[in-house]
Amino acid sequence: MANLLKQQADIFAIGVTNQTNNVFLANISSGGVEGVNWFYSPTFSGLQEIRDSVVQQACITTTPRPTTAITQPSSTSE
């Protein structure tokens, strides 16, 4: 399911506290690159320090992925 989601959206992961598993964060994020797809803060108050980096990466314009249109069968009135 996660891989299907990664095909449709960019996934960012943020870990907080020293209980964070960096390998897990890399695996659940879209690209697995620290500071690009996943971020770490040792404390909740430290989130302010990474906020600009997260926003910058999230706002990068990317090529839209093709979408599959979902259509409903047309109903015929009798």
Q: What shape does the CA trace take?
A: elongated
Major beta sheet summary: 2 strands, parallel
Separation of the first and last Cα atoms:
41 Å
Unreliable segments of 5+ consecutive residues: none
Mind telling me the C-alpha Rg?
18 Å
Mean pLDDT across every amino acid position: 82
Succession of helices and strands? HEHEH
**Approximately how much helix is present in the residues?**
25-40%
Secondary structure category: alpha+beta
Strand content bin: 5-15%
The number of strands is 2
- Tally of DSSP helical segments: 3
Strand order of the largest sheet: 1-2
Feature tags:
78 residues; alpha+beta; 3 helices; 10% strand; elongated
Please, could you describe this protein's structure?
The protein is an alpha+beta fold. The chain has a two-stranded parallel sheet. Helix 2 links the parallel strand 1 and strand 2. The longest helix is centred in the last third of the chain and has 12 residues.
Layout of secondary structure:
Layout: H1 2-8, E1 13-16, H2 22-28, E2 38-41, H3 47-58
Parallel strand pairs: 1-2
Please provide a brief summary of the model.
With 78 residues, this protein is of the alpha+beta class. The protein has helices at residues 2-8, 22-28, 47-58; strands at residues 13-16, 38-41.
